[in-house]
Amino acid sequence: ENIMYTGEQLLLLGLSPGSSCDKLFSRFFLVSNSFSFKMGIIHEDVEFLFRVYPTAKRIKYSHICGYVYYYNTNSTDRSLDFHKIKRGIDSDFYIVHELMCLSMDSYSPELKEYYKKQSNSLLCSLLLSFLWNRRYIPLQDIKKYLLSCRVWSIYPIRGKTMSKKSDCLLPLFNIEVCYLFLNKILRIFRY
Q1: Could you tell me which residues are beta bridge partners of residue 60?
Q2: Phi and psi (nearest 5°) for 155?
Q3: Which spans in the chain are helix H?
Q4: Is the pLDDT at 17 greater than 80, yes or no?
Q5: What is the pTM of this model?
Q6: At 179, phi and psi to the nearest 5?
Q7: Helix axis angle, 82-102 to 139-151, nearest 10°
Q8: How big is the CA angle at 72 (ends 20 and 97), to the nearest 5 degrees?
């Protein structure tokens, strides 16, 4: 395509930035805006793109395949190691928090709403994964995550998500006692 977009346009059109592996950036753009990956988290490229896109004034798509995905069976996302799983979950909660922080930044009202919905969607997804995931996450850890979310003012979830179906789950998720009870009940049948 020969069409130029801004990062804000693409986000508001519903683009999920995804991974940074298939994107090229001008070094000048990254350095002049002090953009770099957050150290110590997993999915740092996703968090990075959510910060970078609103600042990008010229984005162009190419039909050239410049990236080939390699399926890594030892990837953190596929690991059965509890510490790797927990580190991934910790990182996702960090990204939820960062997205909510972006929703309070000096962007357009539409972009602020986009970030809030993205944050709510990711948090809803994490809570849902605790209910259905086959990987065992201790209930005590789930309680700690909920407490951290309260401290960060992202729980209970306020506002909408990116999905009407997820919005329907919010009343259940937002009553912590009900959510934890449902988690306990489902564990009886799962383990």
Answers
A1: 4
A2: -140, 135
A3: 7-12, 27-32, 44-52, 82-102, 109-132, 139-151, 164-174, 176-190
A4: yes
A5: 0.90
A6: -60, -45
A7: 20
A8: 45
